[in-house]
Amino acid sequence: MKKKPLGRSGIAVTELCLGTMTWGVQNSEDEAHAQIEAALDAGINFMDTAEIYAIPPGPETYGKTETYIGSWFKKSGRRDSVVLATKISGGPANPWIRGGTRPNRARVREALEGSLRRLCTDYIDLYQIHVPARSHFHFDASWAFDPSDQDRAAVPAQMLEVLEALGDLQREGKIREVGVSNESSWGIAKMLSLAEGRGLPRLASVQNEYNLIRRHFDLDLAELSHHEDVGLLAYSPLASGVLTGKYLDGAVPPGSRGAIQKGGVWRQNEHSAPAVRAYRELAEAHGLDPAQMAIAFCLTRPFMTSVIIGATSLAQLRTDIAAAELSLSPEVLAGIEAIHRRHPRPI
After folding, report:
1. Strands 16-19, 304-309: pairing kind
2. What is the rounded average pLDDT of the residues 108-135?
3. Between 270 and 291, where is the model more confident?
4. Composition of the chain by helix, strand, coil, percent to 5
5. Phi then psi for 246, rounded to 5 degrees?
6. CATH topology for the 3-242+257-267+301-326 domain
7. Omega cis (within 30) before 5
8. Which of 3-17, 26-40, 128-142, 150-164 has the lowest average pLDDT?
9. How far is residue 178 CA from its own chain's centroid?
10. Helix (H) / strand (E) containing 342
11. Which residues contact 217 (CB under 8 A, 6 or more apart)?
12. Which of 9, 26, 227, 301 has CB 3.0 to 4.6 Å from 22, enough for a Cys bridge?
């Protein structure tokens, strides 16, 4: 499988990354271990998790996915086979994580030490800030996004404190590289500037949503990525399964994200349904699996470092992995752009 540089870090990661957030609710520990082994057998060397996983998140599921990964490392002895990414979560939306407090110097260390224990490792290859400690436009918040509520002094000060904490942990050998998730172009640029002037860790990547019906990254974020070598780790390339068409006409398959998490498939609505149908019809017209077409499209983007794939079955995982071998024809790519022009923001 193709590998790409993780920013300017010197680490090479495969163009597909194994996502893990179904583990702990939708998938058992044994199923999680089987997925890891199938991914490694297929050539994937990159795995992403977060302290908040499994999904749906809550006090009873907190840390379960990291624990499953840790038990596999302990059982297999193959920690060095994996470029491991995890995230510090928390904030007011998650009061069961450090009292809902935002990351600061002490809480970054506390979160990292907890992840290390659960993951049964003494270092993290890529440690990411899961969400900004300020208002943002991710998770369907773009329609009401208003950054005028952000404190111009407090926001950069909080960013700097977190970078300083990450610098401490990097010097101690507990993390190799740092990244962000659910960030904006301004947030990334500001953190790069703060780091450069003080010798603090430079962002290697940004993990944002990217898929056929969610293409915010095509504009200013793509430009920043090109000039600053902060590549995209794309989550939800299938829009939480919406792009397969399985939720059309009100369907909710048993065991799916929609069945286990209230509001978990907000990407499926009256605005997205026509686009989803159009993409499915395009795939069928060219004899393609809709999921593979969606993933393969993400892999064509010049700013893409890795596409994070997740599955609840080995069959789904193998289908997703096979997308790396799919080369989309000029006709398919033109068809995708024509649909995108008709449905540029269908969520």
Report:
1. parallel
2. 96
3. 291
4. 45, 15, 40
5. -70, -15
6. TIM Barrel (3.20.20)
7. no
8. 128-142
9. 14
10. helix 330-342
11. 208, 210, 225, 232, 234, 301, 303
12. 26
Instruction: Please state whether beta strands 3-5 and 12-14 pair in parallel, antiparallel, or not at all (unpaired).
Output: antiparallel
Residue 218 has pLDDT above 90, yes or no: yes
Give the rounded distance of the alpha carbon of 240 from its chain centre. Answer: 12
pTM value? 0.96
Better-scored residue on pLDDT, 133 or 214? 214
Taking the C-alpha atoms of residue 329 and residue 246, their distance in angstroms, rounded to an integer, is 25
- Residue boundaries of the structural domains of the chain: 3-242+257-267+301-326
- Tokens representing 341 are 């022009």
Q: Which among 211, 218, 216, 217 is positioned nearest to 242, based on CA atoms?
A: 211
> What 3-state DSSP class applies to 138?
coil
3-state secondary structure 29-70: HHHHHHHHHHHHHCCCCEEECCCCCCCCCCCCCCCHHHHHHH
**The one-letter amino acid at 135:** S
Answer yes or no: 279 catalytic: no
What stretches of 201-299 adopt beta strand conformation (E)? 203-209, 231-235
Cα dihedral sign, 241-244-245-246: negative
